[in-house]
Specification:
InterPro entries: AAA+_ATPase, ABC_transporter-like_ATP-bd, P-loop_NTPase. By secondary structure, the chain is α/β, with parallel strands linked by helices. Helix content is 33%, strand content 30%. The strands form 3 sheets. Strands 6-7-8-3-9-10 form a 6-stranded mixed sheet, with helices on both faces. A 4-stranded antiparallel sheet has the order 2-1-4-5.
Length: 291
C-alpha cells in the first residue's frame, strides 16, 4: 500500500501541489491533468526524489525517501531520459543493477535480459545508445524502471514517441507489473488510461480534483453528452461551443457535443467516454493559479 497523507510541495512562487491524501493498492493507477497541474511534482514526491513541504508518502509504512536512499523497491521513469551515448542498453542496465547490490552477477544478467525482452529491446541490447531512436531510448528507460521496481513503479509519459504497436506492448508490460505492485502512470493519452487503468487521479492547478474509477470520471458527463446527424449546410451554421467532433458519413455529418441542453432538436443523449468526463470535470473548475 502506498499512502500519501497531507502531501504537498510549496516553492517561493507558490504551491506546486497543495496538500492531498491518497491510498493506492496494487494495480495500475492513471494520473491525468493539464500542463502545470502538479503531476510531475506528485510523481517526484511519491518516488522520494524531493522532500515535501507538508506531510509524507509511505510505502509499507515507511517514508518513500527511506526506500529511495536504500536504492530499492521504487522504480521511477521521468519524462526526460539521459543515457550515456557510448553505453549499450545491456551495459546501462547491468550498471544500474549493480548499484542496487545484493545479487550475484549471474542473477543480474538474468534480470537484465528479462526486462530487455519485456520492452522489446533484446535484439538491440548491445548497440551503443547513440544509435537508438527516441522511442528505443524511452523503452530503455522503462526497462531501467522495471529493474528497480520492487513495490512501486512510477512512469511519467512512458508512451510518448512510441508507435501504436509499441504503445500496446508497453500497456501489457505495465499491466503485468501491476499484478504485484503499485503502478502509477502519468500520461496525456487518455486511451492509455482507458485501456489499462481501473482507477484514475485527476489534478488541476495543484489540487486533487478526482480520485476514483474510470467509470466514475466518465460519469461527470452523464446526461450531458449528445450525438446527432446533420447536413453540411446546417453544420456550417452551428455554434462551436461544446462541439467535440464532427465526422462525415454517407448521409451527412455525425456530431458529438457536451452541453447541459440539447444542442440540436435532433440530438440524443449517448454514453459518455472517459475523455468527455474528464473535459466536463475540468470545465467545472474555477480559473486561477494554484498560488
Amino acid at each position: 500500500m502506498l499512502t500519501a497523507c497531507k502531501l504537498g510541495k510549496q516553492y517561493k512562487t507558490g504551491w506546486a501541489l497543495r496538500p492531498l491524501s491518497l491510498e493506492l493498492g496494487p494495480g495500475l493507477h492513471g494520473l491525468l491533468g493539464p500542463n502545470g497541474a502538479g503531476k510531475s511534482t506528485l510523481l517526484r514526491l511519491l518516488a522520494g526524489m524531493v522532500a515535501p513541504t507538508t506531510g509524507d508518502a509511505l510505502l509499507r509504512g515507511s517514508s518513500v525517501r527511506d526506500f529511495r536512499r536504500s536504492g530499492s523497491r521504487i522504480g521511477y521513469l521521468p519524462q526526460n531520459i539521459r543515457v550515456l551515448p557510448q553505453f549499450s542498453a545491456r551495459q546501462w542496465l547491468l550498471h544500474a543493477a549493480s548499484l542496487q547490490g545484493g545479487e550475484s552477477a549471474a542473477e543480474r544478467r538474468r534480470k537484465v535480459d528479462e526486462v530487455l525482452e519485456q520492452v522489446n529491446l533484446l535484439g538491440e541490447a548491445d548497440l551503443p545508445a547513440r544509435h537508438y531512436s527516441y522511442g528505443m531510448t524511452k523503452r530503455l528507460g522503462v526497462a531501467q524502471a522495471l529493474l528497480s521496481a520492487g513495490d512501486l513503479l512510477i512512469v511519467d509519459e512512458p508512451t510518448a514517441g512510441l508507435d501504436p504497436e509499441e504503445r500496446i506492448r508497453l500497456r501489457r508490460v505495465l499491466a503485468e507489473a501491476a499484478a504485484t505492485r503499485v503502478v502509477l502512470l502519468s500520461t496525456h493519452v487518455l486511451g492509455d488510461i482507458g485501456a489499462s487503468c481501473s482507477e484514475v487521479i485527476v489534478l488541476g492547478e495543484g489540487r486533487l480534483l478526482y480520485h476514483g474509477s474510470t467509470q466514475g470520471l466518465a460519469g461527470f458527463a452523464e446526461d450531458r453528452t449528445w450525438a446527432w446527424e446533420t447536413s453540411e449546410n446546417e453544420w456550417r451554421r452551428m455554434p462551436l461551443g461544446g462541439l467535440l467532433s464532427a465526422r462525415r458519413t454517407e448521409e451527412g455529418i455525425l456530431c458529438r457535443a457536451l452541453s447541459d441542453r440539447p444542442p440540436s432538436p435532433f440530438a440524443e443523449r449517448v454514453e459518455p467516454t472517459l475523455e468527455e468526463g474528464y473535459l466536463m470535470l475540468m470545465n467545472r473548475q474555477p480559473s486561477g493559479g494554484p498560488g
